[in-house]
Amino acid sequence: MADTLEFNEIYQEVKGSMNDGRLRLSRQGVIFKNSKTGKVDNIQASELAEGVWRRVALGHGLKLLTKNGHVYKYDGFRESEFDKLSDFFKAHYRLELAEKDLCVKGWNWGTVRFGGQLLSFDIGEQPVFEIPLSNVSQCTTGKNEVTLEFHQNDDAEVSLMEVRFYVPPTQEDGVDPVEAFAQNVLSKADVIQATGDAICIFRELQCLTPRGRYDIRIYPTFLHLHGKTFDYKIPYTTVLRLFLLPHKDQRQMFFVISLDPPIKQGQTRYHFLILLFSKDEDISLTLNMNEEEVEKRFEGRLTKNMSGSLYEMVSRVMKALVNRKITVPGNFQGHSGAQCITCSYKASSGLLYPLERGFIYVHKPPVHIRFDEISFVNFARGTTTTRSFDFEIETKQGTQYTFSSIEREEYGKLFDFVNAKKLNIKNRGLKEGMKQSYDEYADSDEDQHDAYLERMKEEGKIREENANDSSDGSGEETDESFNPGEEDDDVAEEFDSNASASSSSGDGDSDRDEKKPAKKAKIVKERKPRKKQVESKKGKDPNAPKRPMSAYMLWLNANREKIKSDHPGISITDLSKKAGELWKAMSKEKKEASGEWDRKAEDARRDYEKAMKEYSVGGKSESSKAERSKKKKKKQEKQTKGKAEKKGAASKALSSTKSPAKSMSESFKSKEFVSSDESSSGESKKE
């Protein structure tokens, strides 16, 4: 007999909705983990009172009753699993797994039985339906009638909101069956009634969601938020988690309460209650209980009189009443030393906290993502600027969260944190020394985008070196080793834009020149500066020493033929891309251990500096003289060309004045009239 049984894709019935998760049966008890919320239900073996196996809509189900009256229902079992479960219950829990089928006669009269927190409507000995009394939000009575109202279920498409029971009158004196029915329901129902005094009250606390200032009254079983406009009553059973998070400014604290089901206001649902405190606020608190009651109920976790920071007192009281741990940020530290990252989610800016077992974003809208529900994370380029990047998280259910506008300086810290937590990183190639899983994510758009970025960086680097070779004034600069994964995004984007602008404008100019010859002097003048730039690049001194190559370029030249032989028919672009991948795959330790290419690059740099000194002393002066004589010659040619153009313009003006004279003698019009007419006709032609 196995010590444990595990079942996947099991559904737990909670407040009318089926929550999927994993069920584990062991010697110690029964554990169910909700896949959606991560909430864990733990039933000790000593608490189990009864186990029932029955046929339900999703196959077969298991109903467990505990000694304190709680009922747990799990559906999704196969019929063949009954023998295995029955033997396990006998061996480890000493319980008989009874088989009881539901009555499907369709009758609407029968007997109501109250057992623990369950209302069962039976026909004979068979149950027709069961209602967990914790689902009841209100119970009202009428003449021979009891009406039950239920909490709205946001997860279900259709929710049962009301059931009415007709209770026939009885002959017994002094007993009202309607009132007895209602009292049985109300004793177990989730109807919150603020009876008695509050344990303590916190006045005018700043609340971010729901927004406003609220008085928080702490009762034994629920929390009462009292504001100017709205009131909320929150049972402690609906609290999933508590978070205490320091603000980035180190002067404020967030206290976050995660709720399931959420509190409602109209159509708005609040899954998180977020309180904001200043660290400077202090409070002296006295509980509305005597010392014996405090000691008996809280067992030393609280005392009757307490004092300290306001956020500490609120969190301490909540922890004692809810009986849940408070989650605080782990060992993550951002670029500025804070335990959070400034970013934007949807339309609002907020703070993302990497925790030990998940991420939480505050504050609008608040988001909590557990590590166990994350499928993968992705680091993407910022859509608006290269000074930031986006952090994307996709869950196993297919939900995607994009946290944008994260400062580029936070990338290394966040990457190391995600890597340490062993989360799947979709684009590992962005970090040097990490092997990217091309096979697993080959078809994704993000990976194609990153490969394109890498190629652009490589081409931009090569263009930068060529431009540096052609510039005379950059002799004192030195190249750094080429690291495709660590190159600044600004460089790649700058070269991308320049390349596209120059190529498109160049093509456009050539097309215009073929179709329309330049008639106006104005167009020629606009294009002259661009020609001058080309001439200045072409006219550089051929005797000047060439700039030294970086370690990457030296390695590429030595291994180019080997890469070609390993990949026959590879294109130039793909060759550069492949070389970048191979260089990036070489670990930092391997590069430092061999040191061959760094030494060669250093030797080349020294030779270049030595040659530049010799060139600046002797060769540069001679080349500058040749350049000056060249410029002088060009100036003279330009002057003679300008004189010829002026002469031609004068002859044209002369011929134009002769033609109006002929027309004047023929039509007897004045010279002023004719010239004005000509000018207007010339303007219309231009238009």
Automatic annotation (TrEMBL):
Annotated TM spans: none
Location of the DNA-binding region in this protein: 545-616
Gene3D superfamilies membership: 2.30.29.150, High mobility group box domain, Pleckstrin-homology domain (PH domain)/Phosphotyrosine-binding domain (PTB), Structure-specific recognition protein (SSRP1)
UniProt subcellular location: Nucleus, Nucleolus; Nucleus; Chromosome
Chief site of localization: nucleus
Any Gene Ontology biological process: DNA replication
Biased composition (Basic and acidic residues): 532-544, 637-648
Keywords on record: Chromosome, DNA damage, DNA repair, DNA replication, DNA-binding, Nucleus, Transcription, Transcription regulation
Biased amino acid composition, Basic residues: 517-531
UniProt cross-references to InterPro entries, sorted A to Z: HMG_box_dom, HMG_box_dom_sf, PH-like_dom_sf, RTT106/SPT16-like_middle_dom, RTT106/SSRP1_HistChap/FACT, SSRP1-like_PH1, SSRP1/POB3, SSRP1/POB3_N
Matching PROSITE patterns: HMG_BOX_2
Any Pfam family matching the protein: POB3_N
Superkingdom in the source lineage: Eukaryota
Compositionally biased spans, kind Acidic residues: 474-496
Recorded GO CC terms: FACT complex; nucleolus
HMG box domain mapped to chain residues: 545-616
Segments of skewed composition (Low complexity): 497-507, 650-667, 676-687
One GO MF term: nucleosome binding
Region of interest (Disordered), ranges: 458-551, 585-604, 612-687
Similarity-based family: Belongs to the SSRP1 family.
Functional description taken from the UniProt entry: Component of the FACT complex, a general chromatin factor that acts to reorganize nucleosomes. The FACT complex is involved in multiple processes that require DNA as a template such as mRNA elongation, DNA replication and DNA repair. During transcription elongation the FACT complex acts as a histone chaperone that both destabilizes and restores nucleosomal structure.
Name of protein: FACT complex subunit SSRP1
Species for this entry: Rynchops niger
